[in-house]
UniProtKB/TrEMBL annotation:
Cofactor(s) for this UniProt protein: Mn(2+)
Main enzyme class: ligase
Origin superkingdom: Bacteria
Active site positions: 311 (gmp-histidine intermediate)
InterPro entries: RtcB (IPR001233), RtcB-like (IPR052915), RtcB-like_sf (IPR036025)
Entry's cofactor comment: Binds 2 manganese ions per subunit.
Organism: Myxococcus xanthus (strain DK1622)
Lineage, opening ranks: Bacteria, Pseudomonadati, Myxococcota, Myxococcia, Myxococcales
A Pfam family that the UniProt record links to this protein: RtcB
Catalytic activity: a 3'-end 3'-phospho-ribonucleotide-RNA + a 5'-end dephospho-ribonucleoside-RNA + GTP = a ribonucleotidyl-ribonucleotide-RNA + GMP + diphosphate
Name of protein: 3'-phosphate/5'-hydroxy nucleic acid ligase
Binding-site positions, Mn(2+) 2: 172, 255
Amino acid sequence: MPRLLPPAPGCRPILVWARALPPGAEKQLRHIASQPYVVEHVAAMPDLHVASGIAVGTVFATEHHVVPGALGGDLGCGVSAWRFPLTSGLPGRDVLERVLSQLAERIPVGDAVHRGRGLPLPPALESPPLSTQKLRHAWERLAPRHLATLGGGNHFLELDRDADGALWLLLHTGSRGVGAAIADHHGRVARALGEGGLPALDIHTAEGAACLADTQWACRFALANREAIAARALDVLEEALGVAADPTSVVDVHHNHVAQEEHGGRLLWVHRKGAVGLQSGQRGLIPGSMGTASYVAEGRGEPRAFRSCSHGAGRVLTRAEARARIRPAALEHVLRRVVYDKGRAAALVEEAPAAYRDITEVLEDEADLVRPLLRLTPLAVLKG
């Protein structure tokens, strides 16, 4: 059940599903709750943590404003999953190592992109009507080279097993440089022309309408990116396993976006930064960390959370803190049963399980938001 933060003058109510607020998070929640365009209340998910603009895990709504700085730079970022119904048992470590090596060869990770002109774009994404010539040029230059690339940070490709012995492919990535360019442009427009301490654009203005439209194109590219990566990964896995993924098992959710939805009998623009929107009964994904379980979950449609839930475990250490506190040897010990690139252990300490919250506590805190359906245990992980 959520708790209500003590009210403050000029602030909308703040409902928090996290058992404890990390340092600085309450200040960020109160800042967004004090903005004149926010309606109803602000909802904080259990994986809440401080970030630029507003905290990751923040959900709020407006009547007719879009807030570029409340969506993050990786517009449309999300998680996808596919299930492989195995009949001959899980693959051994040797097979997993070979598969991970093949995935790393076929899918650029980190800062890597496709060389030259890149890949052909899906026809629907070849020439989107973006709002400025500069953004159109950025799309033409970046989209073909960034399509089917994973990116860095907490992005991943992961092979998991469920309790029934099936294998799952999980994928986490977003809109890459395309989304970053769009987010940066409209953030600058909002800072110049917007309303409020975290500047918002009225959607009835040309600037606000352009922001919404361009953001939706970024989300479309993010989905296309996941689909393009999945096509390559599924080919590798189907060849290695001798079985195709179950097409009815596919789940895809995004967690940095704004969407028009009906809440309380009226249409609102719901902003989610690091939060997933799930209708009652809709399946979603809540990943843990590099060495801990992830979950397929079902939304409960809780209206007080704007039908939202956490997008993962949530960081408890910044990347700098993780590098300072976690030794590569400690990471190797924690991941001794997981196949990964041990040669990158010094860099991957930023993504160590100790840098994240306990996913079981996160699920306990949001028991009225989602119902866990399947626990997925990691077998192999490719990080950006």
